[in-house]
TrEMBL record:
Start and end residues of each stretch annotated as Disordered: 878-944, 1219-1310
Bias (Polar residues): 893-914, 935-944, 1249-1266, 1297-1310
Protein name, UniProt field: TRP C-terminal domain-containing protein
Keyword Transmembrane: yes
Domain of life: Eukaryota
One of the record's GO molecular function terms: ubiquitin binding
Record key words, sorted: Membrane, Transmembrane, Transmembrane helix
InterPro entries: Pectin_lyase_fold/virulence, WDR48
GO-annotated biological processes: double-strand break repair via homologous recombination
Residues spanning the membrane: 704-724, 744-762, 774-795, 807-829, 977-997, 1041-1066, 1092-1113, 1119-1139, 1146-1168, 1188-1213
Amino acid sequence: MVGRGGSLYVSAQQARTQSAAGLSIEGTLFRSSTAGSGGGGAVFVNVSSGGCAAVDATAQACLSVTLRNTSFLNCSAALGGDGGGLAATLSGPSLALTACRFEGCSAERGRGGGAFVESTGITSVSDTQFVSNAAGVDPLSGGGGGGGLAWTFAAAGVGQLAAPGLELSNCLFFNNSVGSGSQGAAGQSVGGGGGLLAGPAAGLSASVAVSLSRFKGNFAPAGGGASVMAISTATVLNCSFDSNQATSTGGGLLLQGVQQAWLEHVGFTSNAAAVGGGLCVSTGASQQQTSTARSLLSSAPGNAIALVLADFFLNNNTAYKVSGPASPTLLYAGYGGGIFLSLSVAAALIRGSFQGNSASEFGPGVATLQDMGSCSRGDQQLGRSNPSPSAMVELINAAGELVTEHPTAGAYLSFGASGGFGALQSTPAVVAPLFLGYAFWEVALFRGWVGSGYRLNVTVRFTDTTAAEMEITPLSLEVELMPCPLGSSIQAGPAARPDQTSCQPCRALQFSLWVDPRNSSSNAVESFSNATLAAILEKGVCHPCPSDAYCPGGAVVVPLAGFWQSAANSTLMQRCFIREACTPSPLSQPVNLSPIGSPASSASGASASAAADVPSAPLVACQQAWYASQPPGARVLASLNASGSGEACLLWGEGSANYSSVVLYTEQQCAPSYSGRLCATCQPGSYLTTVFACKGCSTQGATVVLGIVALLATTALILFTAWIIYNNDYMRAETGPVSASDKLLVLITHMQYLIIIARLNLSWPDVITRMASALSALTGIPSLTFPVTCLLSGLDSAGQARAQYAWSFLSPIIATLLAMVLWSLRYAFYNQSLLRRGARSKDVEEKRRRWATNTLASLQPCDSGAISAIPSKAGSTTAAPVLSRGSEDSGVKQPSAQQPLAASPSLQPQQSESTAHKPAAATKVPSTRLEGKPSVQTSRLSGLSASLRKSTRVFTTVEPSAAIVHLDQGVSLPRQLVLLLLVAITILYPGLAHASLSSFACRRLDTGAGPYPETQQATWRYGYWLSDMNQECYLGVHRSFYAPLGAVCVFVFCIAPPLGILVLVLRRRKKLGQPKTRAVYGFLYHRYREDFYFFESVKQLQVLMLVLVNVFANAIFQYQQALLLLCVLLCIGVVNMSCRALRAKLLVLLEYLSLMVLALSITLGLFFVGGGAGSEMGLDSQAAEDAVAVIILVLNSSLLVALALVIAWPALVRLWRPAQKPRDPTPSTQGQQQGEDDAEAQQDPPPLQGTQSGQSNAALSGTAESPTAAGALGKKSEQPGSGDPRDPQGAEAGLNPQVSIHVTQVSGVP
């Protein structure tokens, strides 16, 4: 047993007396497991049930092996082992594989690249995918095959009674392969079955049944799509074989040595092989040639292959000539582009379609090696293997008893009306033999005009002359020809008798909803007219199947998975917002119908994913049950009325309220929890997300907690942003370091854009949507985080839309009001109380003076007047604001003497007329004009540092609390709340804009295009509201409530914010440099260059453009939405980079990185559109999807973290540097200095006077304890001993760093 089961090995044997337990594996992933020659790369199961197989392999007493929701990825079996992912050897137990996936697995020299099963019982495989698996061929033994799945029987020994069987349903075999094989005895190919290999099971009554499955892109030496060998019975229903290839026989399907095969509703498209490009049917070595199709349908011998192929199509299949060694099979290379039939194959081909097939040698459609001369039209018209007769008569006596003993006789059938109306085509054509009192007509086709007046006559004639005198009363019946049933077309009669019309049911890939208007009660002869016939012939035709629909024939038209139709007979299929919503749930007791449905037709033009091509069996069954009776639905309603209960599906809603278990067809289209038009509304107990997915509600307590947390998070971001903005020093040099508030706005903008992108319906992975939900809690988008509808139970779609619509506005409004309340509390209790407690303290006075210093440093100089800078003497008692030289008490960071100082752009000094300087005298520099009305504190210190020379450079830092103190002192609370509202609007603008515009977001559904436009039910010309698809736009409550309210909200929340900001800055464009304007509104324009002070309005318009695309692009395809949003995002980048509105290069870089990360996220998101194995779009594996999701997550998370670090870095540096400063070893010196500072702070400055132009003005004085300022002044004063302050020799020469700055004239101050 060495080398078996790379991850799991199970071996068990059940005795006769032991109870059955079984093995179950569910929700498990096996990745990259490897096994040796024993096989089973990941799992090996060897289970035997003693005595079970000898009775019944499906009995309850037997063990069962079940695998559900289990995946096998990149597993392998080496050294000739079978089963790259799974190997199971079962004697007695049954095996069930449900919703499993085998991908990238391989069996190098064995069978079953994905899975190998050897069983004596029933093997059931459903909803399972085999993708990109490979099986090899042993060059020594020639064994191998079954690239996806290999199944065969296990020898159970004596007593084997139960027949092994394989049942496949709703499976996908995509891109599987088998290595090059060889030719076995009698031309049998080994290494077959690129997707599926079933058999051999010779000598047993084994069966294989495959339904609702697809084989695409597989390759093998024989049977490119599937190979079924030496099986008693094979049934293939509703399957497709697309783009498969074989080097020898059977490009799509190979049936070799199969005794009986039934294929119905199958399609072969673009397959290729040397022999039988689409289908190849051949005999085994022991089978001999027998009769033709006539023998098949009556009494074919048991050693003949019987094939029935019904309702099929073969398109673009190819049989090509190959060069190679002579073999019995390759002798016919190039034969049978569509179908190849070898000897001893009795075939009946019924209602088939051949288009575009080719063969290099013979038979582009069908090539056969047997004589078809005895085939008749009747062979092709017969139905199933045991067809019921079209007509039957009985021979009875006068007592009404069946006469079984009678001479040899025949029954004659005739039909017609006066005037030659009516004709009959029957099989047998003339007479049916009377046997045991019965006569049968396999086919009886009555032709004629619909109506009454016809008679059906049956006569019996004895062929025995001795009984010629026996008289049998003929049977004559009055009959009416009924109108053509729904799903039929009308065929005109011969040119000589056009009235002899007939009804022909529409074949697969066609449909008809034409209702025959003729009345059966009218006399046929009298009601016929050529005009009426012409009108009926024009309308009574079969139409091609609509796009994105599946048509098995007749009147049945159902949407493919991911699409929706407004009514059961609607011919226009609508793409659903998400594919999962339009996935019907099956009935618990399905309608008793044979499964009908085929994969998506290439003729329909649908280009959906592989899984989308499998039709919905519940929808097909629902329609077929309804159309099975005349009038349609009579049988279903009669069954409901008779039973009074039971589950049934009704196409229309009349009378459905009388039955609790009835399911309407429109509801049957939607997955559980979904309902309404386009399956875009949710049932009670679920809530609708922004991507139209219905999620189950949590408990009300958890929902309330989630809502409170989201509300508090939004409030915290508003307050934090306002605090950072108003702690910013807008008076500082604009060429200095970028403020934290400017960086924070870049971070917030990136989060807003990312949330907009995540709202695209791109089937984002769960990790991306969770990240967007977390960010939305900060930016006030409640629909992503808080399902308010879960708090109100029992709401229908209208109530859910109303609650969600109201909360989308109330949530940001409540968060803003809460932020205002908290800000008001701060205003009342924090800074104001601080001012009262420390009104005369040095610390507070120092903060006020520094703010005033910054304020005056940014003012424009006046044309006249002078400011005198006089060196102060030691021990001066002048009380002036002190710019400390790096003392810990001041909190001012002193620039290094070795670094150049940046001058404020707003400080533009002019050269004074007087340039004379005296030693130890006042040095005059240009005065400064104050524009605007300064605050109270500014008035007291209005001339502090305003008289500096042209080369004077100012460098100061304001502590955060100082700016807030000045704001509280200079701006009233109501005005502060208005400013806080501006900050809140900046953060909440995308969410409010989305909620406002969603009032007008509608989607049109049925447009009246296509045949039978009157059957389309969702034809409202203005479409349906996306928030509630059951509500028509601009009708009812939408017109009376939502539309007017939405118009107001669009103006208030979409237009007013950018327009208001634009008007605000335009009205103050000449005052943008004033201290009060910059302190209050500086955050709106400070980060932009002077010419682009209005650019904040442009930024909001850019956000609005993204929101517009996000809201109104739901009517187009998903990838088109992404491309459109990407175009808008790139246009935003072009505008921003072209204008270069931002002042700082760092902000330009951060904004560029943000846009590039967002654009890359959208581009990578296109991988999630139309995904699924086998699709031409999207990713084929879960691992690839996970990798792309991780890349998107890492990109955005890294950028967000980087932006946060950039914002916090200056604060971290300030925290780090004080910890590195050495402590002063002389505490007495610190105390002495502190006392001197306190003494200076408590003294009033003496008045200083200066004259100019004969005027005397009040002067403000102060001292500057800044070596930088002193050095700069000394350098310009040309005094002896002055020099560069960065030169230590200049300081040693006697330059006193303390100067007094005297304002001799200040103009413009009221």
